[in-house]
């Protein structure tokens, strides 16, 4: 196996994992929290009151909620990408 094959294999695995995480948030209610990446400037103003912001950075906002369809709500509020958080194997929430 060449080094190029290793890099292509690694890139495929990372892209597959990332795609799986995006799919989980789009179509299930599996995670109690989420990480909204690249949110719109008025993202927080469009969130329902049942969603709590638990952390934020320059290009991300971490939220927690029991809201059904959390991923869809976050996309509708202006998040460009939504990843799950708060479950084993997911990004930890504070």
What is the H-and-E element order? Answer: HEEEHE
Structural class: alpha+beta
- Strand portion: 15-25%
Report how far apart the termini are.
42 Å
Outline the low-pLDDT stretches: none
What is the helix content?
Answer: 25-40%
What's the total count of β strands? 4
Please state the overall shape, judged from the principal axes of the Cα atoms. elongated
Oligomer: single chain
- Mean pLDDT figure: 88
What's a concise summary of this model?
The chain is an alpha+beta fold.
Task: Please provide a written account of the structure.
The chain is an alpha+beta fold and 94 residues long. The chain is built from 2 helices and 4 strands, in the order H-E-E-E-H-E. A 4-stranded antiparallel β-sheet has the order 2-3-1-4. The protein has one domain.
Map the helices and strands.
Layout: H1 3-27, E1 33-37, E2 52-56, E3 60-64, H2 70-77, E4 81-85
Antiparallel strand pairs: 1-3, 1-4, 2-3
Descriptors for this entry?
alpha+beta; 4 strands; 94 residues
């Amino acid at each position: 196996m060449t080094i190029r094959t290793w890099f292509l294999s690694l890139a495929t695995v990372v892209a597959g994992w990332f795609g799986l995480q995006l799919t989980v948030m789009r179509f299930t209610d599996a995670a109690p929290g989420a990480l909204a990446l690249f949110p719109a400037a008025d993202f927080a103003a469009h969130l329902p009151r049942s969603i709590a912001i638990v952390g934020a950075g320059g290009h991300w906002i971490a939220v927690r909620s029991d809201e059904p369809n959390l991923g869809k709500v976050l996309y509708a509020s202006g998040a460009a990408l939504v990843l799950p958080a708060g479950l084993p194997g997911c990004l930890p929430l504070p």
